[in-house]
Amino acid sequence: MANYLQVIILHTIKKFQGERSIYAIYHMLQGKKSSQTIQDAHLFRLTNVFGTIPHFTRKQLVDTIQNLVEHDWITAKQNSDVFIITQSGEEELAQCEPIPTRLNGWKYQNVAPVFWGRLNLLIQTLSHIVHNETKFYPIQRNTKIQQSIKQFLQQNRQNRELMAQHLYEELTDLLERQSDRHQTIFVRKLTGINRVGQTFDQISKTMQLDEWYVRYVFLESLHWMLAEIEKTFTQYRLLSSLIRDLQQSRLTQSTQTTLQFIQAGRTLTEIADIRRLKVNTIEDHLVEIVLVDKQFPIDKYVTSAVEEKIRQVMKKLQTKQLKAIRQSLADEAISFFQIRLVLAKAGDEL
Amino acid sequence: MNSLEEMLEHYFGFTEFRPGQKEVISSLLAGKHLLAMLPTGTGKSLCYQLPTYALKKPTLIVSPLLSLMQDQAEQLKVRGEKRVLTFNSFLTLQQKKAALSQLSSFRFIFISPEMLALDYVIRAIQQIEIGLFVIDEAHCISQWGYDFRPDYLNLGEARQKLGEPLTLALTATATEEVRKDIIEKLEIKDMKQIVSTVDRHNIALFVEKLSRYEEKLERLVQLVQQFSGSGIIYFSSKKAAESVSEYLHNQGIDRVAYYHGGMEPDQRMLIQQQFITGQLRMICATSAFGMGVNKPDIRFVIHFHLPATMESYVQEIGRAGRDGEQSAAVLLYSDGDEGLPLHLMEQQLPTDAQVEGVHAVLLKSGEGMMDILKPMQEQLCQQFSLNEVQFRMIAQFLATKQDVAKPIELFKQYCYTRKSRNAQKLDQLLQWVRGSACRRVGIVQYFEENQAVNNPVCCDCCGMSIEQVMERWPHIVERQQADSFYWKRELASILCIKGTKE
Ligand SMILES: [Zn+2]
């Protein structure tokens, strides 16, 4: 039986359909903030696992790939850096725990660790206060997280017993709508006055589950909770006020600046000049913008006729590979940039 | 508040000083630079904390390990001290700037040696008046110490730039040679030394010889069942720590976990806290565990593998019995065990070929050496199969010398000398292990103390047995492990919610 890291990588390879090298897998799971990776996440429907292993190492990747090859679950294409899933790989994948459906790395990979850090420390702090204990070692060493909880408690002057009660209610409400496993894993990770949270390894041994699987179930819990809090924030007043400052735009800083210039009516070349960046970079920004907002008008950069042409070729070839599309178009006037824009806009439609 | 005792009670809630503390504090307050060797577990940090309140100026504490620094800072904060800063490379540039601009508002400033090597940091500290300059784990400055850190070599210069403030160098274990080296490197002419004995009278010492690995495992199971209370079992490899932890678990021994440097920081933190709070009874650890772990009631330390030097052995067993109660240290040895530490020591030092290789690359580039070394780390490490320790060693050595051509021979010589020193140190430890003379006398002699040892609960060579030690063991009530886990009940109990139904 495959371990869950192998499952995740097998799943990613399957989704890539032999169109990306193993380094794309590496960047995908690490959550690399490059236009290529961001675009791939959307094209290949991998937004769920995007950035779910921020500390992923090349060695981990290479070892896992090697292992998958030994099991005959994947096989190398002509080019040794590209792998495709085999029949027995498909069968293995069908037998394993499915990829958590509520996972959303693309949207929450940055927010989830901060959310967890704060929630974890808030619970520990409240637990001690309501038990009349003021001295304790914070389980979160990150000073930013420590400061934000300090601030949070200063701003919310509410009676602490009441706050603990509210936190309990909001959390049980969120947990009750999750599976047994999710509930148990989440609460086992918590630290309070008479208990220190368990490590993933300890939980996996107690529950007799694969450690990577435990990590993913926990992550899914966090992502789903974040989505629920965002959706019905009036119902989760305490939790939503804990992360209010985190729900900013999902564009990278530099892309936000580019967006402001575009909205001010500047052309891409002008923006590149003003910002002393390459035009290529500004184009990357635009693709990122379209990925986040499919309604963003692109007619300034691709005429609707050209857009249609590109879509036709995509459909015909059933591929998302830029090179193949461009070759098939046989029209020197259509640039890679234009194809990427259309791909970004088409998203999962293909 | 006048007397030291009054301050001790006011700030720390103690009524009595531990051996050595008062002497150190009085000397400091008399304005004497000091090298203090106080054994682990005797309250070293109080030696600079109390004078800080008396001197009414910020104290700067240099600490070699980030985790150690954080542990000490947290301990201060738990005591109620709010004016604590930990200044290290984990701060963002913004946080660093903010901290530096209000430096004088802190009472305790913990800093890593590499931060102290930066000009803008030094300039900021120069603006305030430092009351006391503390070098924790001062043996790290000596190339002959067992835990040499090249970063520490800058400390003498930094101290001079800061106007030679009153200085306290602290260490738990340092031979006379190392102590001499510390003073030399710091370039302090009139440095006083206060040296307490390394002997910890409440720790009974045992060395047991076993013929095979399996026998060791069996013996380990017996021992941890016999001992009550908390304990640490030391291993020299991460893998062994993990697998033996699992083995013990499978033998029905609960509340045991492993700890090593390869784990993620937040997971390490959980294990450490579980141990401190008593949720875990035992830790299977590498030497990464222990520094900064402030747990008074550790009853036993078992070495499953041989440590590399007497210094690290004494440091590690010193984590037992800080509460003064009877404790025990057991070293399990079988022939051939010395191969592992020997191998590990080899790995810490670059070979001639590696040194020459990196040096040649540098010569060709002809640029500023530190500028080029850092960004090329990954490539150089791969090209010459260097590990991080070896790389830092080379980088530090080559970067501090101005003339590129000369130091290479010197450095090779240094590596060579150090290798033979290491082997010699291991050999000394081995002789102690294989010998049949009193263990305690052996330790005391190693550190060149001329102190008479007279201890009724001494060691295996003096005819002591584990059973006899257990007769003096304090009574320990073992924690019951919760049998069932229901998330809602657990969450309610954490947040003190009453009257919830399942
Ligand atoms: Zn003896």
Automatic annotation (TrEMBL), chain A:
Pfam families: HTH_40. InterPro entries: Helicase_HTH (IPR029491), YpbB-like (IPR008308). Residues 254-343 form the Helicase Helix-turn-helix domain. This is Helicase Helix-turn-helix domain-containing protein. It comes from Peribacillus asahii.
